[in-house]
Amino acid sequence: MATIRVIFCLLLAASLCAGCQALGAVAGKVAGTPPVPAKYVPNKVPTLVLADRTARANVDDAATEDMGRRVANIWQRQKIAPLIEPANLAALRSSMGRQFDQLSIDAIGKKLGADQVLYI
After folding, report:
1. CA dist 109 to 18, 25, 74, Å?
2. Residue 83: which of 54, 42, 40 has the closest Cα?
3. For residue 90, what are the contacts with CB-CB under 8 A and spacing of at least 6?
4. Count of beta carbons in the 10 Å neighbourhood of residue 68
5. Once rounded to an integer, what is the mean pLDDT over residues 44-69?
6. How far apart are CA 98 and CA 25, in angstroms?
7. pTM: predicted TM-score of the whole model, two decimal places
């Protein structure tokens, strides 16, 4: 019985000497990371997610559209704001041809019925 007490005391002392790092690591794994409040909360109005590549970016149009769709999917899942369908943007782009590139971001949003544009 005394041996069990000694072993228990040694294990307790060893765990206390481990410091806060081990305890903090365990607590972090169990509790998870706390949520971070948003710095900007968009209005709940029709929103267009517009991903555009800059002239300096070494990315093709398909990858840019894919990124826009992925961001739109995240916004839809989290119900951040009602979104304009990405297919509507693709249809507008293909119907206007080169004239699409002359439109401002605001004009693209207005043509698609968006009150705000998330420009990536």
Report:
1. 57, 46, 19
2. 42
3. 65
4. 21
5. 80
6. 55
7. 0.65
